[in-house]
Amino acid sequence: MAITMALPAAGIAALGIGSLSFLLPLPLADISLFWLVLAILVRTFLHTGLFIIAHDAMHGSLVPNHKVANDLIGKFAIWLYAFFPYERYRENHWQHHHYPGQIRDPDFHDGIHRHPLRWYLKFIGEYLPLSQFIILGSSWGLIFYILNQIFDISLVNFIVFWILPLLLSSIQLFYFGTYLPHGGNEKDSSNSHHAHSTNYPIFWSFLTCYHFGYHWEHHEYPNIPWYRLPEIRFQQNLKV
Known about the structure:
By secondary structure, this protein is mainly alpha-helical.
């Protein structure tokens, strides 16, 4: 059972690493604009998947009943995503679940940073303080130096297929996982999670953010992995 539940995570990680390994050496001049844009979007989606893996691990739903394996995979996924410290992010994320849409919520706009751009910058600042930004930049510099010296990977390819997808992924996660679900709902006292869900069909819900848009369902059932959120949403709709 635990192995079966970890299979989607293994598939996402394998595709993410495989796509990066395939794209980094390719000469950009030989790729048409259409395929280049598509490659960046696919890399962004897969990179977001690494975050989703770590997110499920923080809820203990990645490898249930096997905490050591669950946390090890989560640490590896969040490290691949942006060299984030797993424990710090887990603490912040559970703070979000305990105080959603409130001042103590690190994902909340705090009543001041309401504009989407200001809210996004605050959101990023909570998870990427100066010290972590230095670690991220240094790690990227070292990795690029190694890839350039051994495999002759160009800086442009490194930026286009690794750094740019991370930036776009952060926007994707913020917009579909924070801004849409929690924006404007913090004063709804009838909703203890201060969250609502998007009404996208399952296919688009998956493409936009691995069903993270079914956000009320996630807050109500935080131990449910991402791929079961449509099932929970369907069950809730039957009760209405």
